[in-house]
Amino acid sequence: MFDYFLQQLIFALAIGAIYGLIALGYTMVYGVMRLINFAHGEFFMLGPYIYTFLFSGLVGLGGLAPVLDSAIAIVASFVIVGLLGVAIERFAYRPLRAYGRLAPMLSALGMSIVLQSAVRVTVGPQPVHFPAIVPSTPIDALGGMVTTVQLGILIAAVLLMVGLTLFVNGTRLGIWIRAASESWTTSSLLGIRVNRAVSLVFFIGPGLGAMAGIMYASYYGIMQPTMGSVIGLKAFTAAILGGIGSIPGAMLGGFLLGAIEVFGTAFLPILSFGYIGTEYRDVFAFAVLILVLLFKPAGLLGETVSEETTVAKKDY
Amino acid sequence: MALALENVSKHFGSLVAIRNLSLSFDVGSIYSIIGPNGAGKSTVVNMIAGSYAVTSGTIRLGETALNRLPKHRIAQLGVSRTYQNLRLFDGMTVLENLEVCFFPQSWLTFLTGAKRLSKAERLEICHACLAEFHLSDVADVLAGDLPYGRQKILELARAFVTQAPIVLLDEPAAGLNHTETKDMAAMIAGLKREDRAIILVEHDMDMVMSISDRIDVLNYGELLCSGTPDLVRTNERVQEAYLGTTEELDDIRKLAQSRRAQGGLRANAGIVRH
Amino acid sequence: MGNSVIARRLGLLAVLALCVVLLALVPYFPSYYVRVVDSILIYIILAVGLNLVVGYAGLLDLGFIAFYAVGAYAYAMLASGQFDIHLPFIVVLFIGAAAGAIAGILLGFPVLKLRGDYLAIVTLSFGEIIRIAINNADDLTNGPQGIAGLDRASLFGLPLTTPVHFYWLLLVLAIIVCAGVYYMERSILGKAWRALREDQDVVRGLGINTTTLKLLAFALSAAIGGAGGVIFGAFQRFVSPESFTFQESLLVVLIIIIGGVGNIVGVIAGAVVLVVLPEILHFAAQYRLLIYGVVLVTVIVLRPGGLVSPRFNLGFIIRKVRTLWLSPSKT
To answer: Would the CB atoms of C115 and A283 count as touching at under 8 Å?
Structure first.
């Protein structure tokens, strides 16, 4: 039982880390723009495609050592997807800032369709094999079986999260981002270039999403143009669960959602004597979300705003 | 009908905003709550209106305890208010801003139509109110398109249109120029009625002194003194709270005089405006 | 009475006549076009219903399609061989609307105190939960296979089988729904909703229970969604979870935003554009969705407030017609 538990735990952590990375993109964008970026799931999907393209390109050109090729391709995918994010913000969201919150959301939905169908048109709709970055070897850890891929994902994701936290808390640019999330107007009055903070967020968020996509694809060994939709939705759920706008909240939410899903799937059929099967996995995740929000209406780590201090009078 | 605060305290975390405050307001008068910034004036208004929950103590309207009641119930019992920052329905016309106040207050009235004003009655009351507040000419203009001063007056009208017995005015003169403030003061003074208590939180001392029947001075969440404008004006503790001790005051005066001699700062006579 | 007035009246008459003639001609179109028009009408009904919540009350509901599913499955279970229950269409129509409203209240009651995006994600989750539950409750819903062979509907003895029959039904219903919502918009209830959209705390300060106000919007829109679902079920004579994905919810929201939030005329325009556009784009084969997305983004960047200006609403049109007819000198 224990080794089974441990195995599930590692699995939960790995998938939770992926959710967390994507959730970071949602939460940071939301923080500075109060926008649900429905296109974010597509950055996740673009990650593995761009990586594969670059990697095979490098190999085709003669390449260096495979490890170096992968490393270059990974970094380059981060940058490319990040730049794409910046460009999308610039052309599809920025012109709409003065028009409430529904218009940018619609634009984001449109962008999501554009990106997804662009990939579909280019490489076809069918799932494609994703080459493993790290060979998947099982490791015997404390009696449970863990694969190198799982460990690799976990380590890489945690490193990215730590890096982001250090960046946001310790650097000048990071402080800009946090200031812009607190108050757009005050920040610009204080001489912070809010637009730069926004661009930065739209670079980091999609970049992290792409990293998560590469991890996800190497975990399942497969990628397809629609893979961003459902995962994106779940990661958004994770961001809300942790408290949208909160960076630690997004990470917590991601891990929590991973745990809920994995343990829900593993133990639900046992606990309910087979009545509720694994097919209710997603229901379970959403139900937990609703329950959490009922008791903590701003998510786990979100700030509760008192109504007298609410800056925005309108919800939508 | 009387509104009474009985030993009310309000804590924000470790900060004590209001400490054991007891006040009572009866219909037929205009009351002003004044005090330096951070004294807890707005907190009092927000507690009465139900936006903040009191930490301890009771707020009563007649026999009914208001604290613990949801905000809309408090409003239904006859407490209406304005806000420190304008909070009109900008996308609706001036007339509609008033009409909304007559939305049926319970499911029962909504469904059965009992005790519910007809559309004609509703419009008649609203138009009469607009005339009273000199807003008739802009009845069909979007509230957000009005100039600031008239928006302030519209908010005032919205607080009075339902004839609520308790009206809380949170800084009605904030942001108005001198003439507008005078007009506002005259308007509020003219709204005094036997069946209505007007409670004013205001920084403009001319306005407070000229229209109040009683002034309550708060300092650090406690009642410093309470009485007629003349009494408050001469109270030493009030001057201390506003301007510091008399020695400090002398220092300030001297400094101001020397500056004025240099042709620089023009010190304002009277009480400092925050 | 001047010549210009007569000319304008004639112009108005011509426009009205053109509308009526067009609507009357639809049944003679080829079947494919009638189906497209039916589809437009269904989405008009849905979007006008959802607009009560999104446009008037200012609450973003991303799980609206769940109520549509409730209605469709109500017809599938109550008028098919599934349980061998065969209730008449009109009865199920009301049951579907009621079931939708009840689902709306059940969802709304606990969650309506949430604000903005939290409400959005909870409604989204609710939509997904309903879809997954339908997908898995095999005994009730046949799971992913769906329920086929629903009863042929009839209304007051008239058969409802061809797209043309449904065209008339949907047209009448769309007019009823638009008129009803327009009436509500003008009533004090509509004003309270708009105020709620502007500033809910102040609305509470005016003595209005915002939770019931939101609940009312939610229930009414869910009822319209439920009724729409019943018609959908009767029309397709087949239901499966496929039809009720998150994307469908988004489509209805899109219709509202692209047409013009809170404006019935805008919603109609939005439904026409978003239903017709993919049909036109059929020629583009696999590039269809790509072009669709690009058009969407372009339209919203060029016209962020929606295609139809908020001033050009039903009230404006009615006023215009009325003044032209009754006191033309004023125009």
So the answer is: no
**ipTM attached to this prediction:** 0.82
Neighbours of chain B (3+ CB pairs under 8 A): A, C
Select the residue of C191, C199, C202 nearest B99 (Cβ to Cβ): C191
Question: What is residue C225's predicted lDDT score, i.e. its pLDDT?
Answer: 93
B interface test, pick of A308, A310, A315 with most B CB neighbours within 10 Å: A308
Reduced to 3 states (helix: H, G, I; strand: E, B; else coil), residue B108 is helix
Q: Where are the domains of chain C?
A: 30-245
The CATH class of the A2-295 domain is mainly alpha
Query: Are the C-beta atoms of B40 and B25 separated by less than 8 Å?
Result: no
Chains meeting C at 3+ CB pairs closer than 8 A? A, B
Find the CB nearest C125 among A103, A110, A286.
A286
- Residues C202, B83: C-beta atoms closer than 8 Å: yes
pLDDT digits (tens, 9 = 90+) for B119-143: 888 899 999 999 999 988 988 889 8
Angle at C260 between CA C255 and CA C266, to 5 degrees: 75
- For the stretch C109-122, pLDDT in tens is 877 777 777 788 88
C-beta of residue C128 within 8 angstroms of C-beta of residue C223: no
| Domain boundary assignment for chain B | 1-78+164-235, 88-163, 244-274
Query: Mapping DSSP to helix (H, G, I), strand (E, B) and coil, where does residue B38 land?
Result: coil
Q: How many residues does chain A have?
A: 316
Are A44 and A205 a contacting pair, CB within 8 Å? no
With contact defined as 3+ CB pairs under 8 Å, the chains touching A are B, C
Q: How many residues does chain B have?
A: 274
- Both tokens of B35, joined, read 């005090």
What distance in Å separates residue B85's CA from the closest CA in chain A? Answer: 10
Parts of chain C with a pLDDT under 70: 1-2, 327-331
Tell whether A233 lies on the interface with C, counting CB pairs under 8 A: yes
In the stretch 287-316 of chain A, residues with CB closer than 8 A to chain B read 306-308, 313
Residues B71, C205: C-beta atoms closer than 8 Å: yes
Q: How many CB pairs under 8 A join B and C?
A: 74
Three-state secondary structure call for residue C25: helix
**Is the sign of the CA dihedral B100, B102, B107, B110 positive or negative?**
negative
Nearest to C211 by CA among C111, C144, C278: C111
User: In angstroms, rounded to a whole number, what is the distance separating the alpha carbons of residues A45 and A43?
Assistant: 5
Which chain C residue's Cα is nearest to B159? C206
Q: Is the pLDDT of residue B259 over 70?
A: no
Residue with tokens 């009839």: C154
In degrees and rounded to multiples of 5, residue A33 shows phi and psi of -120, -5
Q: Which residue of chain C comes nearest to B105, CA vs CA? A: C208
Q: Does A244 touch chain C (CB under 8 A)?
A: yes
CA distance C154 to chain A (A): 37
User: Looking at the domain that runs over B1-78+164-235, which CATH code has it been given?
Assistant: 3.40.50.300
Task: Give the chain C residue nearest A285 (alpha carbons).
Answer: C125
CB-CB contact of B32 with B202 (8 Å): yes
pLDDT band at B254 (very low <50, low <70, confident <90, very high): confident
Tell me which DSSP letter residue C80 carries: E
CA dist A307 → A101, A293, A314, C321, C331 (Å): 20, 17, 12, 44, 46
Nearest CA in chain A to C195: A314
| Whole-angstrom distance, CA of residue B187 vs CA of residue C179 | 43
Q: Specify whether the backbone of A37 is left (phi greater than 0), alpha (psi in -120 to 50) or beta.
A: beta
* Chain A CA closest to residue C261: A102
CA distance linking residue B221 with residue C60, whole number of Å: 40
How confident is the model over A253-263, as a mean pLDDT?
88
Percent of chain B with pLDDT over 90: 19
Cβ-Cβ contacts under 8 Å for A102 (sequence gap 6 or more): A316, C54, C60, C257, C261
